[in-house]
Amino acid sequence: YCAKCSTNSGLQFKVHGEFPLRNIQIEDGNAHISVENSFTIHCSKRSLLLCAVNVEEKTKWMQDLNEAVEKAKNSEPNANISPKLSDQKSNYSTLKSNSSSDNNLDLSNEEDQASGQNIQHRANTTMHVCWHRNTSVGTNDIHRSNLNQLSGYLLRKFKNSNGWQKLWVVFTNFCLFFYKTYHDEYPLASLPLLGYSVTVPSESDSINKDFVFKLQFKNHVYFFRTESQYSFDRWLEVTESAVQKKCLFN
């Protein structure tokens, strides 16, 4: 377990301790204190009270932890022995160490296309995105994401005009990667979808086009258009596997 710390190189995680999986027990809630969406990890004489943001994520954490504990107990006696903390790297960069993908999506505009420059965009890792957006990814989420990968051309609506930009888009590992064409080696931008919702545009969005879906996280809103009903259905299917929020379609 770890906590965030501020350094000259940006926000980082610092490891404070560890619980060997073979020796822990998971308790739903806590016998001594009532905290909503909480569970407790017991290990020898130590206990750690944890709280999830909602019931769904609490269930996800408890399920994955219990499965990991069972696997550790059924493994070879020495398989679960980890190196001492002093021998491990104790700092892990967070989202602050990388560029914000939500804002960088607007790098892929008409000026960038005209320049012909290759922009190498480093995508945020799943760990970074989970920390920044206060969400979690479980084992089942990862398995589902691995089964849902897609690439193809999409039209993205410009924020301040009625124009649409054609981009080659790749969906993998909970993230959309945007390229000028399918020949390009580096993406113009990336958009991690964890925490987003996917819907069809509402009347107030004033989108008078067919086959359009809307991605939104707080004040970040994006509209994408496909060229056929089949393509529309496929993109909804794969994005829904990553957004972790209920999708509403009419």
Q: Helix coverage percent of residues?
A: 10-25%
How would you state the average pLDDT, rounded? 78
Number of domains: 2
Task: Report Rg.
Answer: 21 Å
- Name the CATH homologous superfamily of the largest domain: Pleckstrin-homology domain (PH domain)/Phosphotyrosine-binding domain (PTB)
CATH fold field value of the largest domain: PH-domain like
Strands in their spatial order, largest beta sheet: 10-9-8-7-13-12-11
Main sheet record: 7 strands, antiparallel
Number of helices: 6
Structural class: alpha+beta
Biased composition (Low complexity): 89-107
Domain PH: 1-70, 147-244
GO molecular function, one term: guanyl-nucleotide exchange factor activity
Biased composition (Polar residues): 75-85
Topology:
Elements: E1 2-7, E2 10-15, E3 24-28, E4 38-43, E5 46-51, H1 55-74, E6 91-93, H2 101-104, H3 110-115, H4 126-133, H5 139-147, E7 150-157, E8 164-172, E9 175-179, E10 189-192, E11 197-199, E12 212-217, E13 220-225, H6 229-243
Antiparallel strand pairs: 1-2, 2-6, 3-4, 4-5, 7-8, 7-13, 8-9, 9-10, 11-12, 12-13
